[in-house]
Amino acid sequence: MSQEHQVLRTIEWRSVFPFTQLFQSFRVAIHPAKLVLALLAILLVYCAGRALDAIGPDRYAAVPGEIGWHESHTPRATFVDHVQERRKELLDERKQIEASLRAETLRFDPKRSLEQDLPVSKLESLLAESRQREIDRINGVYNASAKLPKDIDARNNQIRATYDDAARTHQQLLSTRPRGVFATFLDYQIDQVDSIARGVFEWNWTGETGVLAGLQRFVFIAPGWALARHPVHAIFMTFAGLFVWSIFGGAIARIAAVHVARDEKISVRQALRFSISKLMSFFMAPLMPLILISLVALILAALGWLSELRFVGGIVSIAIGLLFVLLIGIGVLVACAVVGTICGAGLMYPTIAVEGSDAFDAVSRSFSYVFARPWKIAIYTFIGIVYAAFTYVFLRFMIFLTLSLLHTFLTLWAHDVGPDGTASIANAWRGPSGLFNLYQPPDLFSLTFSESIAAWAVTFWAYLFIALLGAYLLSFFVSVNTIAYYLLRYDVDAAEIDDVYLEPTEDDFEDAPIDTPITQTVAVDAGTPEVKSAKAESAPTKVDSSSPRRADVTEAGKQEGAGDSAGPTPPPAGA
């Protein structure tokens, strides 16, 4: 008996190791439609945050070092003292700059009247006047000299030094202004993202400045600082950001859901229509567990407060002691809600996008998958973080290379010399200084009018281009969680990955077949004429004999035709 040999030619790795499907998240996230939607969300949240900083009173603004004090677990009383002391220091620095500029201005123009506590714009004008007077003095000395080549070099060096000194004073003046809460929060979060990327580049994962430490600060420190130290600002920005993300993040999740399941790309209009139709579901899904946790916290805090009252405090304390076992059970439920919210928040939007369901289903499914497959959640999260870090560094390098080459080519033959002795395009755009410093903002105070306009335009487009990194991270977060949701659903509920909710479109209604009325003979009473369908008489009906219902109708029609050929039905007796 001959033995049959089977040759293994290919291995379906996605079936053997399902987690490898997470590596297609880069291809899914880099889709232009998702990047555009994420970029729009970033711009809207940025504009809202800047507007809130602009209208907020200065006494509620942040000061440098606030987040560091919060990270060191500074008590609230000491924290407030630090903030007040730092504000006083900034005010003293500003008064010193104002006194210096005022003294120099009055020395050249003693009759000039200057009010007290000049605004920053007025101080900038005085600084510009002081710089121009120094440049005029340098040019006067040069015009009175022999104008040798060494005199030209000396004049240019002195002009550059004058501009540099004025630029440093200007930056010091700007640093004394109150810093908005959103601006402080944004700068800190960007620094943490750069720290994570630097940790990946340097292969530092567990150090104090490594990947995990940066990720922990990004997720917990800055949001905790905003909520604890500036609660009104934080709550407003949270609701505003969640509303924007419910529209654009829901659209991204919808595109990713269809892309992963059917390898098809729906349009941005279809995705936005879906997210707007499910706006309340996307908005309430992350809030539902937070609202529940907050209500329980308020109730327990109220019980603790009642226990300190004079007349009912003893009774409440006894009740708390006797029912403490129930409070332990409530505490366990709250702890589970916290774990489920943190670990399953990323699965809520994919649930709505894949199933077309509501917020309650999103919360229940995400919680059930977290507690049903905790180890798989941990593995998928680790793979997603590592893969996101490597792809982020790669995209950052591509942006750095693009900007570096562009700056090199633009300044290669530049001959237009500005007042400080360098090429004007170099003044407007100084180019990236490294992989982790993609843009060096120019000091607009030191530029000419044309250079200022060019600098504003270059700054806008450069920051918009660099913001694609943030858009990619948002798109990647949604995409990788969508793939993880499909894998967990297949493992827990045995649902196929290509099973996704599809909305009925207008084409579905247009292509739906319309049945043609079938001619039937109706038995009528004596003396009543027979009625037939005019549409059936004008066009014969095509009947599919393979269908049982249609076959019965066809057979009935044949019998009716046979009866008609035999002649008219005789009238009943006595007619």
The rounded distance between the terminal residues' Cα atoms is 89 Å
How many extended strands? 0
- Report low-confidence residues grouped into runs of 5 or more: 516-575
Biggest sheet character = none
Radius of gyration in whole Å, from Cα? 36 Å
Specify the number of helices.
24
Order of helices and strands: HHHHHHHHHHHHHHHHHHHHHHHH
Beta content comes to under 5%
How does this model look, in words?
With 575 residues, the protein is an all-alpha fold. Helix content is 69%, strand content 0%. It contains 24 helices and no strands. The chain has helices at 13-16, 25-29, 32-55, 66-71, 76-108, 120-143, 149-175, 181-201, 211-229, 231-262, 268-277, 279-284, 287-306, 313-322, 324-344, 348-355, 359-372, 374-410, 424-428, 449-466, 468-493, 506-510, 534-538, 548-565. The radius of gyration is 36 Å and the shape is globular. The termini are far apart.
